[in-house]
Inverse folding.
């Protein structure tokens, strides 16, 4: 049963990863990306890496999907067209949601059949923290710095001037001539009746 569950999650993960790249609709791509993250987390749960599975769901599904939505909003995608296509997105969302639910049922069902890890007296989360912050502290810090640089680069790439924005130009305001904007017209007054 564990092998069947592993191969099922692996197949769903490969399918979702291919669909993330090949689908044209960004909403469908996001849904398949969520499915791929959940499939990876389920495989890590089967491999008894609970911390990595929870971190994947919290960080990638929670944070990366929110970041993706911010990027979609910054790219000025026409949301009226996306709302019109809501009915078209509903079947894909339903299939992805059903597959995520099916994966959770399989993980919970096979959780009892997994043999316990070798008794070392230390939980795997504690062991992971000890290794990460002692043996691999420098690669961990370098990865954090790279992520910071990537975040700053993403923000700077999305900061571009909008055509609708209005800016003041002081040099043009100071160099204005009265004759360019105001024309004095000498008109005779009308006689009283």
């Amino acid at each position: 049963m564990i092998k069947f569950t592993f191969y099922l999650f692996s197949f769903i993960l490969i399918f979702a990863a291919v669909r993330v790249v090949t689908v044209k609709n960004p909403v469908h791509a996001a849904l398949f990306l969520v499915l791929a993250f959940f499939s990876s987390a389920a495989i890590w749960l089967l491999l008894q890496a609970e911390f990595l599975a929870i971190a994947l769901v919290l960080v990638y599904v929670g944070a990366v999907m929110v970041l993706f939505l911010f990027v979609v909003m910054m790219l000025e995608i026409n949301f009226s067209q996306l709302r019109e296509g809501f009915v078209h997105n509903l079947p894909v969302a339903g299939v992805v949601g059903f597959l995520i639910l099916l994966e959770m049922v399989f993980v919970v069902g096979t959780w009892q059949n997994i043999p316990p890890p070798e008794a070392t007296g230390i939980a795997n989360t504690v062991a992971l923290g000890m290794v990460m912050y002692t043996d691999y502290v420098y690669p961990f810090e370098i990865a954090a710095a790279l992520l910071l640089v990537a975040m700053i680069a993403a923000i700077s790439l999305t900061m571009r001037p909008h055509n609708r924005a209005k800016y003041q130009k002081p040099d043009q305001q100071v160099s204005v001539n009265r004759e360019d904007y105001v024309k004095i017209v000498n008109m005779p007054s009308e006689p009283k009746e």
